[in-house]
Amino acid sequence: LAKMNLAVHGLEGDIQKAITYYEDPHELVGKADYVMANPPFNVDEIDADKIKNDPRLPFGLPGVNKKGKISNGNYVWISYFYSYLNERGRAGFVMSSQASSAGRDEAKVRQKLIETGDVDIMIAIRSNFFYTRTVPCELWFLNRNKPKKHRDQVLMIDARNIYRKVTRKIYDFSPEQEQNILAIVWLYRGETERYLELISEYLGQVADEALACLEWEEDGEAVRPLVDYLNAIRVLRDTVEPFLKTQQKDGPQSESLAELDKELKLFEQDIVQFRKRADKAVRQWEDTPDTNAGLVKLTHQFEPLAESSRDLIKQTDLLYKLATRLIETLNSSPRPHAGEGPGLRANNQDITRARKAADEARSRAVEQLKQVRYFWKQAHWLTERFPDARLRNVEGLVKLVDHKELEANDWSLTPGRYVGVAPEEEDDDFDFEEALREIHVELEDLNSEAVKLAAVIKRNFEELGI
């Protein structure tokens, strides 16, 4: 499995069969420039007698139980990873969240590790980031070559409120969320230029995505999400026209028709205004120097463009709803000049095709419009929290903690213990309909699981003869 994992990533490695708890076949102590690892958490079957004199335990054994086993193997792993590093080595590994505040003998090992000055960064991750386990975890970063000014400090980042929902049970980071966390580390290390380059990239992406709402090229063909959607709604409106002529002008469809036609005109006008804002955004981005003051100002200047993209999403959905409502009204309307019975059914193949095409065009337009505000929010998230392009403590997110504060807190390395609680934020982009769709999908998953579970229970009962 290890060789296959390397191969699929285009890497080569020296893989040897061994029990790492007791063996070091590569003789790595003091040799590694970098260590990356995701070890098994909370192992309690390591024979203490076999490793008590292991040179990979520079801080001594963690707790040993009555059976002569290491009570919890987390600090065995941590000690091993540290011992592998050379004088300039760095380590990054995933560890159970229990380890950062574990007490008794584990706390003593942790204290000795912290006192080396080599614990660099701690990042807390929420639960459900693993496919097989739901436990929360933390990322540990060690650096044997930390700058002198940071030797008695640890950067604490609480990223438990930063995540992307992949499925009902799985979360991860989006590429931009990873970059934003990394940007905090850049500020900690004084790499301001990299931070500013990221802000500039985000704002450039805002301008590009805005233009892409209007036109971009795919496989040699022009794609115009907003205009294509506007035309698709017009085609649907024209397809329904023969049915409208069979209705009285002041019939039940008149209100829906008037509202649809009104919103169509407004949408067309707003596309023109959005194009002007997009063109202006491109010019502003090109003219803005990559200084903090310039980029913070540009982030504020781009806010109307981001807001207009959100408004266009609402208009896009509204147009489709109005067109659908008009069709439904026609379907339920009485026959013309007859006092009863259903009217002409507005559900022929032409209308069905036009309605489907409009819905597909709506989805494309909405997804493209979302990108504009999405990338603006990334730039805004960073500039709002670090307005001077310098690291500062942010409640609920990040704090630079010195060893005195760590000692006062039992040498805990749990970020949430230091950064505080983030103020609750309103989600301006909350999509009620999307949330309902997610709930529907989740309900389907639960129903599917319930059916499988019922079948298992039934089979078990049958095997028991019940």
Structural overview:
- The protein contains 14 helices and 10 strands.
- The protein has 466 residues and is of the alpha+beta class.
- Helix 7 packs parallel to helix 10, helix 7 runs antiparallel to helix 11 and helix 10 runs antiparallel to helix 11.
- It is globular, with a radius of gyration of 30 Å.
- The relative contact order is 0.10.
CATH architecture of the largest domain: 3-Layer(aba) Sandwich
CATH topology of the largest domain: Rossmann fold
Count of the domains: 3
Beginning-to-end CA distance, first to last residue: 44 Å
CATH superfamily of the largest domain: Vaccinia Virus protein VP39
Write the layout of secondary structure elements.
Elements: H1 2-8, E1 32-37, H2 48-51, H3 74-84, E2 85-96, H4 104-115, E3 119-125, E4 137-143, E5 153-158, E6 164-165, E7 171-172, H5 175-188, H6 192-214, E8 216-218, E9 221-223, H7 225-244, H8 253-287, H9 292-301, H10 303-332, H11 349-385, E10 398-402, H12 403-408, H13 416-419, H14 432-464
Parallel strand pairs: 1-2, 3-5
Antiparallel strand pairs: 2-4, 3-4, 5-10, 6-7, 8-9
Helix pairs in contact: 5-6, 6-8, 6-9, 6-11, 7-8, 7-10, 7-11, 8-10, 10-11
The gist of it:
This protein has 466 residues and is α+β, with helices and mostly antiparallel strands. 53% of the residues lie in helices and 11% in strands.
